[in-house]
Write a structure and sequence with these properties.
Strand content: under 5%
CATH superfamily of the largest domain: MetI-like
Shape: globular
CATH topology of the largest domain: MetI-like fold
Largest sheet: 2 strands, antiparallel
Radius of gyration: 23 Å
Oligomer: single chain
CATH class of the largest domain: Mainly Alpha
Distance between the termini: 43 Å
Number of domains: 2
Helix content: over 70%
Order of helices and strands: HHEEHHHHHHHHHH
């Protein structure tokens, strides 16, 4: 077998692997549509997504399937997690690559790897035992809240943001750093105005991954947010309990009867899938626009 044939086999194998990933995603989407579309057609997409009441097993009156409070809860917790994790994550990546000595880099990377390995249910239990009472005694409320969920998800998102951002910063050419310093820029000016803009695409990719992790997380959020399918009162109150879409699916799938209830849970998965797809599309658009603007 000559080298050309070997390269061709590798190219085909890589193409098939990429194609398999696309096929798997499409099959998942088709399954969700097959199971969830009937309830969307029956009740209407607008009433389902913007409905305020979720009561699929109503004893008195008709069941209601409105997931808007859960959509808001999912978005609030994801945004809160990003607000907390992005500054710490990017700052940690900058310190890791640009400032920390070699021995400190080794210790920090091992700590990050250990943090990735902690199961989400363990973090959720720690939040339940330590964080929820702390919020209750410090800020008031019941402790189960948007704030608790955001803090736990920020901790979970940090390793991804730090690792990918650090790799992006490390890949900035050394000549770029040296040129900035040669022109009289200080170390901090070089980091702020040269290195971070050059690593912007990788940092945005890290934020995308952290965002997807925050929206899709289930068990840790389930344990610390209170699981109340109502809007916060007032709407900006981060100390109120909420229920996310993923938590709703996990809680009710075990006892959901075949029919509208079960289909509504699959329809919730469709909405969640579309939200993640839209966020990814927006993020990739931002990345492309930044690349064009820097040319």
């Amino acid at each position: 077998m000559n080298q050309r044939t070997s390269e061709r086999i590798i190219e085909v194998s890589l193409f098939l692997a990429a194609l398999l990933a696309i096929v798997i995603v499409l099959l998942i989407l088709l399954f969700l549509i097959k199971e969830g579309a009937p309830v969307l057609i029956k009740f209407g997409l607008r009433d389902f997504v913007l409905g305020m009441n979720w009561n699929p097993i109503a004893i008195v009156g008709e069941p209601s399937y409105g997931i808007f409070p859960m959509v808001v809860g999912s978005i609030y917790i994801a945004i809160g997690a990003l607000i907390l994790s992005i500054p710490f994550g990017v700052a940690s990546a900058v310190f890791l690559i640009e400032i920390a000595p070699g021995w400190a880099q080794s210790v920090i990377r091992r700590g990050i790897e250990l943090l990735v390995g902690i199961p989400s249910v363990v973090l959720g239990f720690v939040g339940l035992v330590l964080l929820v009472p702390l919020i209750r005694h410090t800020f008031g409320g019941c402790g189960f809240s948007i704030l608790a969920g955001s803090i736990i998800l920020a901790i979970m998102a940090l390793p991804h943001i730090i690792t990918i951002s650090a790799d992006a910063i490390a890949n900035v050419p050394t000549s770029t750093r040296e040129a900035s310093l040669a022109l009289g820029a200080t170390r901090w000016q070089t980091i702020r105005h040269v290195i971070l803009p050059s690593a912007r695409s990788g940092i945005v990719a890290a934020v995308i991954l952290g965002m997807g992790n925050s929206i899709g997380e289930t068990m840790a959020v389930l344990m610390v947010t209170g699981n109340t399918p109502i809007l916060p009162e007032p709407i900006y109150n981060v100390l109120d309990p909420v229920r996310t879409m993923t938590s709703n699916i996990v809680i009710e799938m075990n006892y959901a009867a075949p029919g509208d209830h079960q289909q509504a849970l699959f329809a919730t998965g469709i909405v969640l899938f579309l939200m993640v797809a839209i966020l990814n599309a927006i993020s990739h658009t931002i990345i492309r626009s930044k690349r064009v603007s820097t040319r």
